[in-house]
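**Fold in tokens:**
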Amino acid sequence: MNDTLFQINNISVILYAFHLCQDLTQEVGQLRQDAEGLWQNCAKLSKPLAIEELKCLPQKIQSYSNQTLTTSRYSKLLEQPLRIKGSNPKVKVEPHKIDDTYALDLTLKYNNVSKLSELNLNPQGCLLASTIQASLGQTLVLYGEPVGTPEEDSKLANACVDAFFQGTDEKPQFSASGQLFGSPIFAYDNGKEKPTEQCHLLVWLNRHPETLNLAQKTYFSLLNLLCCRSKILFAYDQARWCYRQTRGLYGQLEQEVQGFKELPRERKTRLEQLKQKLTEMPSKTFDYAGYLRDMEDHKTAIATNAANYNYWLKKISESSLKDDNIEFLEDFLNQRTELFQNQIQVNLNYLKPGQQLFDQMLGSIRGIVETEQAQQEKRLERWIASVGIGLAVSGISSQTDAKPLEAILIKLNPNVSIEKCPKAELQSCLSYTFWFVLFHVLLGVGVGAITALILGRK
């Protein structure tokens, strides 16, 4: 049978999108600046879906939220879902707040029997993650009532995926299958890490009379399960981003270590380079430690959401039928979540020694700079002390009896005498004064030099 001829009854396209609306650093009740982005992007779907009424969604949510308290763990952001019945497809919009996350349930329902090849389930790619831009990611569910036999279900599921992604090159690959509430379900994924690039799609073919009732009964559990899944993937993506940033700093650290070994011998140049490193390195060290801390936080977030995922999975299992097979949901918890945590721990083990090396190197540079500066200050103090002592000695000697100097000068020049200076010729008097001053200055310099020599040996 040609896949383009597949038919399906009452097909629905359901978008579950999750967007972070609060941060740990914010006060309770305070929202992120981009918190309303999910509702605004949903409103923009009015054009490709040709549903004008979607434009009013952000205003309706804001108006209702202002009248109600939204600080509880879970709250509806509209008293009743927004339903648009006069369109094709029919539209239902349910906005929620779960802890720190906005959750959007957008359902597009096509009635009656439809040929998949004739349906435009995703006009202009408007329902893809790259358009919705939900910060935590999204899951798409294609639900319908198959016309053919159960043996054709896997081919029908593939045909549904082809119909949804016609005109795009972002089609995900088949990843798993199972049975939920008596009906077969097929999972597709593109394996991307970044939330706005991920494509997680479930094709659910209703082949049991209880499927719809049980799906409605466990609606809240399924919504929370998919929310936890998105949070786990988001946390891992953020941890990988931190790892890449830290690896970059680690490479810079290796270069700093090599440069540290090759510092110039000339004291002044070496000191200037060390001071420059002392200015730059603390910020790098702080960033390095911050990324490691964030990786620990993301690892904790994965563990927390894995526990919550397991809780909601058990709630769904309690309502499942005897022949159900939900291993594809369990595998995400038992395999991928554990793999994420182990990988983050390996990365932490690899990078943590770098933080110690950063700290040790920073301490070494600081110690060398302090030692160099202390030596400079000590040399300056010695020079000041030597000059001071020399000046003091020179001053004291200049105030003592001039007879020794006069005797020396008389030997050199018998015509000069201190008593005769006022009566002597001007040149003789000036000569005497010059030699008098020079003698005491040289005496001070000599004493200062001896003092500097003595202090320099200590």
Observations:
- The mean pLDDT is 82.
